[in-house]
Amino acid sequence: MDEEGTMERPTRGHDDHTLFEEELVSRLHTTDEVDIETVNARRQPRETTIWVVTDGKDVFIRSVRGAAGVWYREIVTRPDAALRVGGDRIPVRAVPIASGGWDAVSQLFRDKYGRREPASTESMVQPDTLPTTLRLEPR
Q1: pLDDT tens digit sequence for 80-92
Q2: Are 61 and 87 in contact (CB under 8 A)?
Q3: Which residues touch 23 (CB under 8 Å, ≥6 apart)?
Q4: CATH code for the domain in which residue 79 is found
Q5: Count of CB atoms within 10 A of residue 30's CB?
Q6: DSSP state of 10
Q7: What's the domain count of the chain?
Q8: Domain limits at 27?
Q9: 5 in a domain, yes or no?
């Protein structure tokens, strides 16, 4: 927010995608779980609790159930979604990332969750989960 209390416009990233505000990225870095709000085939919203990671600039999510995850299938079909962080609803758009970025995101999951949740973290970095890696952008 700026000095007048209005939301600042997101900035553009190095590859010309829109970035979240620094304050939100920092908040997501320290938040263990968020809810992703997707829309099902009947156009009804669904919330699912997921993990979220950030590299300090971009925000990433991944389906622990791989492509079989319901929320993942919904967000691939309708990429406009929302994150619920605390009491805030943040509109997002999910963008698949290229396979070249999967290992770096896996390391972000290991760094954030690996010590507290080693078994669950390893589930997030299995070969069948990697293609479900999505970058979130503000909308």
Answers
A1: 999 999 999 999 9
A2: no
A3: none
A4: 2.30.110.10
A5: 8
A6: P
A7: 1
A8: 22-138
A9: no
Cβ-contact 138, 18 below 8 angstroms:
yes
Report the half-sphere exposure of 46 (CA within 13 A, side-chain side). 16
How many angstroms separate the CA atoms of 25 and 53, rounded? Answer: 9
Alpha helices (H) along the chain: 22-30, 70-77, 102-113, 118-124
In a domain, 33, yes or no: yes
SS (H, E, C) the chain: CCCCCCCCCCCECCCCCECCCHHHHHHHHHCCCEEEEEECCCCCEEEEEECCEECCCCEEECCCCHHHCHHHHHHHHCCEEEEEECCEEEEEEEEECCHHHHHHHHHHHHHHHCCCCHHHHHHHCCCCCHHHCEEEEEC
Q: What is the C-alpha separation between 61 and 76, in angstroms, rounded?
A: 12
Q: For residue 27, what pLDDT is reported?
A: 96
Compute CA distances 108 → 16, 47, 49, 51, 102, whole Å. 22, 23, 18, 11, 10
Is 100 inside a domain boundary?
yes
The letter for the amino acid at 16 is D
Is position 3 within any domain?
no
Q: pTM, whole model, 2 decimals?
A: 0.87
